[in-house]
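Our consortium's second objective concerns turning raw sequence data into structural hypotheses that experimental partners can test. To show how far this objective has progressed, the report includes one record in full. It was chosen at random from the queue rather than selected for favorable results. The single chain below, 285 residues long, was entered without modification.
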Amino acid sequence: MEFTLEKLKSPEHWLALGLPVLAKIAIALLIFYFGRYVVRAAVGVLRQVMQRGKADPTLTGFLCNVAYGVGYALVVISALGQIGINTNSMAAVVGGAALAVGLALQGQLSAFAAGVLLILFRPFKVGDFVDAGGIKGTVEEIKIIHTILRTADNQEVIVPNNAITTATITNYTARKTRRLDITIGIDYEADLKLAKTLLEELLVQHPKVLKSPAPQVQVRALGASSVDFAIWPWVATEEWFEVQCDLLEQIKLRFDAAGIVIPYPQMDLHLRGGAPTTLEVEKRG
C-alpha cells in the first residue's frame, strides 16, 4: 500500500490507526472495573459463607484478604495483557519475589500454616488447660502465628504454632470428668483387708468423688518394701487437683488412726563381729 503525505495528514488515516488502540484500552478498562466488582462480590460471598460456618474471625479475615489480593492481581494482569503489554515477565518477577519472600519467612510461614490447622481442627480452645509444645498451661489466646498460654504460676508463655502441631497435644480439660490415679503403699505387716476397706469407705464417703463410674481400689504390686494399692476415683475435671490433694491427706490421717504404716525406703546394715545395726535412710523431696 502506497502512503502519501496527504494520506498521513488525513483524519481518516489517524482514525483508522487509533480505533483499534482505543478499542483495546476500552476493553482493558471494562475488564479492570468489572473485574474489581466481581472480585469484591466473590470475596463477600466467601466471607458470608465462612461466617455462617462459624469460622474463626482471624482466619476469615486473612483468607478474604488473600482472596481479594489474588483476584485483584489477576484482574490487573488481564487488563494489561488486553492492551498488548507482555505480562509474562511481570508474572516471572512476581513469582521470583514471592519465592524469595517465602524462603526468607519459612519459619513464619510454617507457624502460619500450623495456626490455620489449629483454628480449623480446634484440638483445644481458649480456657482449656493443655500440654502443648512441651508447655503446660491455660490457653489465653490462639493467634495465627502463635498461641499464648498461662502457666499455673501465672507466667505468660508464647508458643509458636508449628511447635504445637509437630508435637503431642494433651488437652486435660477436653472431657467433663477425669480419673485420679493414686498409688499408696502399706507395710507388709499391716492388715491388707483393713487398709483396702478404709480406702473404699473414703472414696464412697467423699462428696466430690463420682458414683459413676464407680471408684476402684486394687492391689497394684508387691513392691520391695511395701504392698502398693492403686486407687482410681472419678471426679469432675475442674476439681481434679483439689480432690487429689484432699484424698492424699485423708488417706494419711485414716491410716495413722488405724495404725497402718506407710513405709519409706530403708537399708539394713549388718556389721561383722558386732551387734546388728539398722540404718534408716529417709527419702527426701
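The partners drew two points from this record. Confidence is low (pLDDT under 50) at residues 279-285. Helices lie at 5-9, 11-52, 57-82, 88-104, 106-121, 161-165, 192-205, 240-258. Both points have been shared with the crystallography group to help prioritize constructs.
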